[in-house]
Design goal:
0% strand; 10 helices; DNA-binding; TetR_C_Firmicutes; elongated
Length: 177
């Protein structure tokens, strides 16, 4: 087994252990020791990957957002229903972990989703013009309400455990846009 595969497996074990622990207790009550025991690793292994539990949380968030951003910004792909659906399929693979995060006040998942949607929309050519035509209110209010609508739908989907398929959720999102 290569070193890269072992690192990936270890990080996945840590992530699963962390999700399991978050479903049982608050973030503040989870220690690195408990994470290591649950993941069946030693503390040294944990510290090879993360400085502390806050660093771990930040890196887990960054990894997920980086993968989603890579899907959304694929070369030669316009922002479309297909891209949104592919993104939701990626998130659906990790819906249990996202569900636990959504129920963890420390994480502030709705805020993370809003910021990410805003970032994506800011990088879509002519999106402001589209929004001005679609919603006849000042742009700053139109953008905030549009982003809040999508964030609310995604948060509800995550909290419900991904009850609808990624295709169904894509249709719902595009019905409001």
């Amino acid at each position: 087994m290569t070193k890269q595969i072992r690192h990936t497996e270890t990080k996945n074990n840590i992530k699963k252990a962390f999700a399991q622990l978050l479903s049982q207790k608050s973030f503040e009550k989870i220690s690195v020791t408990i994470i290591c025991q649950t993941a069946n690793i030693n503390r040294g292994t944990f510290y090879l990957h993360y400085k502390d539990k806050y660093d771990m949380m930040e890196k887990l968030k960054e990894d997920t957002l980086a993968k989603v951003y890579a899907i959304v910004t694929q070369e030669n792909q316009a922002f479309s229903k297909d891209i949104v659906c592919e993104t939701l399929h990626y998130l659906y693979q990790d819906i249990d972990f996202l569900n636990v995060l959504a129920n963890t006040p420390y994480i502030k998942l709705p805020q993370i989703i809003r910021e990410f949607i805003s970032y994506i929309l800011d990088n879509i050519p002519d999106f402001d013009s589209y929004l001005n035509e679609k919603i006849a209110i000042p742009l700053n209010y139109a953008k905030v309400s549009y982003i809040a609508s999508i964030e609310s739908i995604m948060t509800e989907w995550i909290l419900s455990g991904g009850k609808e398929s990624p295709e169904e959720l894509t249709d719902i999102i595009f019905q409001i846009s």
